[in-house]
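Two proteins follow. First one:
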Amino acid sequence: QVQLVESGGGLVQAGGSLRLSCAASGRTFSNYVMGWFRQAPGKEREFVAAISRGGWSTYYAESVKGRFTVSRDSAENTGFLQMNSLKPEDTAVYYCAAGSGYRSAERYDYWGQGTQVTVSS
């Protein structure tokens, strides 16, 4: 089992930045791909970003490419999502996940409880 806890969400004005953290406990976090997903009200959960087990490869949704950066610190069992140039359409609950999935939510085995990000215009 892997337990994931997100933090760092909040309210920010458009153009601002937030850094989300995902603290992992339980099984070795570095054994898993780490992904970030988000779900806005009335919409389906969507892929945001993912990082490989060793941290060498990263993947992004087109809507966040160039603005968001995913990273991980395996020694600290923590993952991060740096979000810059935020837009109102980035407003959602953000979830971190651990598994083998990259872009596919179905291939993630463990999920955090989510953290709310609200971007005001």
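Second one, unrelated to the first:
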Amino acid sequence: QVQLVESGGGLVQAGGSLRLSCAASRDVISINTVGWYRQVPGKQREVVARIISGGRTNYADSVEGRFFISRDNAQNTVYLQMNSLKPEDTAIYYCNADVLSKAFPSFMNYWGKGTLVTVSS
């Protein structure tokens, strides 16, 4: 069973920075499209940043220029560097990825369980 485990969340003051990590379990062979999403209670989950085919990145308008997504293919890990954080960035952040694992012959989509980011004003 593939697992995506997020870490790096926490409490930070407005203007501060955090770096989130998403590590895939060891039975992962390859990761295709990968992204970070966030959700505030009572609202829909929204995309924050993604790395798509060809290594291209795209970002939500609200985080463009402040957040940066990157990946380490050798470690099967994805990062989200978050700078100039604002109180409205407070949410649970989830990792999502299309993963090829030893258990299945094709790419499957997985979600992590999330990590809470709280930005105080």
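SUMMARY FIELD: The two ends are 40 Å apart (CA to CA). The mean pLDDT is 95.
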